[in-house]
């Protein structure tokens, strides 16, 4: 699992590739859960969280927020 700082250091292409990999893994795990053969149910939650982190960073980049703006907003909450 990647931390938010690790994700921010990735290039845009790396983030997109990682996002595709995670979505494929999530689909595979959901299929296993449906069949009842999932060994670690918490892995679905972890993958969903990493997907959310990547999407958050991509959205921040899209909106043009800098790291300092994001950090300042986080400190206020």
TrEMBL record:
Ribonucleoprotein is among the record's keywords: yes
Source species, domain of life: Archaea
GO biological-process terms attached to the record: translation
GO molecular function (one): structural constituent of ribosome
Coiled coil ranges: 12-39
Family under the similarity heading: Belongs to the universal ribosomal protein uL29 family.
Name of this protein: Large ribosomal subunit protein uL29
Species of the source: Thermofilum adornatum
Lineage: Archaea, Thermoproteota, Thermoprotei, Thermofilales, Thermofilaceae
